[in-house]
Every structure is written in C-alpha cells, then in structure tokens.
Design brief:
Elements: H1 2-10, H2 15-19, H3 22-35, H4 37-56, E1 63-67, H5 77-83, E2 86-91, H6 96-102, E3 108-112, H7 119-122, H8 134-137, E4 142-148, H9 156-165, H10 175-188, E5 193-199, E6 201-206, E7 211-216, E8 228-235, E9 244-253, H11 256-259
Parallel strand pairs: 1-2, 1-4, 2-3, 4-5
Antiparallel strand pairs: 5-9, 6-7, 6-9, 8-9
Bound molecules: S-adenosylmethionine (SAM).
Length: 260
C-alpha cells in the first residue's frame, strides 16, 4: 500500500493522464500483477516467446517499438535491447518498476502517449480523436512494432471517464469500437513487421471448469486466426471470487499485417 502511494506521488505522469485516471489504473494493475504473479507467469512466457519469434527472422533490427509496454511483464526487454539498436517503449504511463528494469540499457527510451488519441477530446479541447501513431508512421527505421496486450485496455480509460464526468459533446456512442478499429488499422500502417498480442474475451469459470459467463473484449471486432493462442488466468480463484476464476484467451500474430 505504501509503495502504491509513493508511486502515485513520484511517477512522472502528465497531469491530463493523472486526471483521466491512467496513473491510478496502472498502479492497480501493478498491485494485481504482484498478487497474481504465479498465475500470470505462463501467459508472460508465451508472450515473450511470440515476440522473440517475430523478431528473430527480421532481415535487420534497427528500432523496435512496443505499444502498451506498461510494466514490461509480457515484454522480453533484455532480449529486445540486445537484438535491436533502439527500443522505444510507449504507454500512457510507466511506473518505476519498468523504469528500473530499463535503467541498464542505454538504447531503451520511454514515450508517454495516449494510444487512443482521445485525451484532448475528453478534456474538452477538441471535438475529435487525434492520430496517436502519426509520428511513428514517419520513422523509417522501425523494423518491429509490438502491440503488447493493450488493445482491449484502450477503450476502458475513456469509457470510465465518460461514466464519471458525463459524455463530451460529439462523443460517439460507439467510441470503444472505433478505438479498437483505429488501433488495428493504425498499427498496420506503421513501418516494419507488426506483432500483435491481444486478449479477446473474458471467461468466468467455476471450480468444476464450467463456463459461467463469456464477454467479448474486442467491441464486436473479429480477428483472423492467430499464429499462437493460449489462456491467461487474469484472476485465479480467490482474486475476483472464491469460487470463480477469470480467464482471458490470448491471440498472438507474429506478422499481423500479413493476416489483416
Ligand atoms: C494489460 S496491460 C499490458 C501490460 C504490458 N504489456 C506489460 O508487459 O506489463 C495494458 C497496458 O495498456 C496501457 N494503456 C491503457 N490505456 C492506454 C492508452 N490510452 N494509451 C497507452 N497505453 C494504454 C496500460 O497503461 C497498460 O500498461
């Protein structure tokens, strides 16, 4: 709890992102990841292997961009920093555990960016979404882009803000669907190979293995068949409920543009 309070105070984070709740959400995710460390480990190992498989047969390895890098749990930072000339970690907020992990690599840098492009719209400064990938699109040195288990998180921040503050003028009723579509279309227009790792739904299961509930996390968007897939036990028994666990199926695409 003390570490969480200290993180809230010392994490470098844009005031807008604090106000929109991103710092609080990142700290909650960090605490949950610590509690569920053992249950998350198989997912993290699968994600590391998929990212390295996407990286390994590239003809050249100049810049690798990781979108939704967060706490670098499902991102093999050391291996990427060894393989690429530069690694760019993009997330709305990077907590100090991620900053500490990156400290020993001189070729790793952090970029704080809202990948929905919705911040100014939510703050009442514009009446539309910005293009969050515009700068990256112009960087011809990018050889690999990893979208690291962030796609289904992107609609959640704006949805929570709209619930708390009310709907801004001209805010679309289908904002979540648009945000998911814009990320998938946007990453396909970036240079380099695109490795997409995303959860797709949440399955609630009881102790006998029976599915109690399923909920789509992709806002109705369907995805092509993945190169790899696995299950991520996001909340083992006792985390969300004593007799129910939450499991997210995860899809990995080693070269998403080819599939898209
Ligand atoms: C499930 S976590 C991914 C974890 C991360 N790949 C890791 O290895 O720890 C989702 C990530 O999406 C990020 N995120 C959520 N909304 C975002 C936004 N609007 N822009 C950028 N990143 C966002 C969160 O900060 C979080 O780090």
């Amino acid at each position: 709890m003390l570490a969480e309070v200290v993180s809230w105070l010392i994490t470098p984070c844009r005031l807008d992102y604090r106000r929109l709740g991103y710092l609080g959400a990142a700290i909650s995710l960090w605490a949950r990841g610590n509690r569920c460390r053992a249950a998350w480990r198989p997912h993290e190992a699968q994600a590391h292997a998929a990212i390295l498989a996407a990286a390994d047969d590239l003809p050249q390895r100049r810049t690798c961009v990781v979108l939704g890098s967060g706490l670098l749990r499902d991102v093999p930072l050391a291996a990427l920093a060894e393989r690429f000339e530069a690694v760019v970690l993009v997330d709305v907020v990077h907590l100090w555990p991620a900053r500490l992990k990156a400290l020993r690599f001189s070729n790793v840098r952090f970029v704080a960016s809202d990948l929905t492009g919705a911040t100014d719209f939510l703050m009442g400064r514009t009446r539309g979404f910005a293009d969050p990938l515009i700068r990256l699109r112009q960087d011809a040195r990018i050889d690999l882009v990893v979208s690291a288990t962030c796609l289904t998180q992107l609609p959640l921040g704006p949805e929570a803000v709209v619930q708390r503050w009310g709907r801004p003028m001209l805010w679309p009723a289908d904002a979540g669907r648009r945000i998911v579509a814009a990320h998938l279309d946007g990453i396909c227009r970036l240079p380099g190979r695109i490795c997409l790792i995303t959860d797709t739904e949440v399955i609630t299961r009881n102790r006998t293995g029976e599915v109690v509930e399923r909920e789509d996390l992709l806002e109705g968007r369907s995805l092509p068949a993945p190169d790899r897939s696995w299950e991520w036990t996001v909340a083992p028994f006792g985390e969300y409920a004593s007799d129910e666990e939450l499991v997210h199926p995860v899809n990995a695409y080693l070269d998403f543009r080819r599939r898209h």
